[in-house]
Amino acid sequence: MQFSSLFTVFLAGVALAAPASTTANKKRDLATITAAFTDIQNKVGSLDTAVKAYQADLTDVYNASQDVLASVDSGNTKVAATSPVTLSEALKVANQADALTKVINTAVDDALAKKSAFDASDASSTVAEVLNDFKASATKFGATVKSKVPANAQSIAQGKIDNIIKAIQRGIDGFA
């Protein structure tokens, strides 16, 4: 009888703990995805600062661009290890994607405004190469993020990814 009571209490404890564990994991997964976006945004912001300060030495711009690529690749690895998010969480991810698109557009605008300086120091081909690398990494990151949103939100996620890629492509086209 005591064994039966202990077993019942144990099962009740497991049943109560399971939903809390699932909720905690989902929050952590959303946090991982949003943290990846935030880190990428911060790195693109630092790259933009380096671009605006560019004179003739590509070192700071190149180093900042490598930081962006490392952030995207790291984010991709971290997001790939998460569980899918809920529909309401996917909306938060969409907001993060919009914010990233805005930061990328600003950085591309600033790089295009400095194109003559990049041309004068024969650095435009390097900028185009880095943008192509960024596009490839961002495409991979976007596909990974898309795989984490519910099926009924994946077309929206794809649209957000497309906006990010279009922003990068605009830079590639400007430096072609």
From TrEMBL:
Keywords: Signal. GO terms for cellular component: extracellular region. Residues 1-17 form the signal peptide. The keyword Signal applies. It comes from the Eukaryota. Pfam families: HsbA. This is Hydrophobic surface binding protein A. It comes from Pseudovirgaria hyperparasitica.
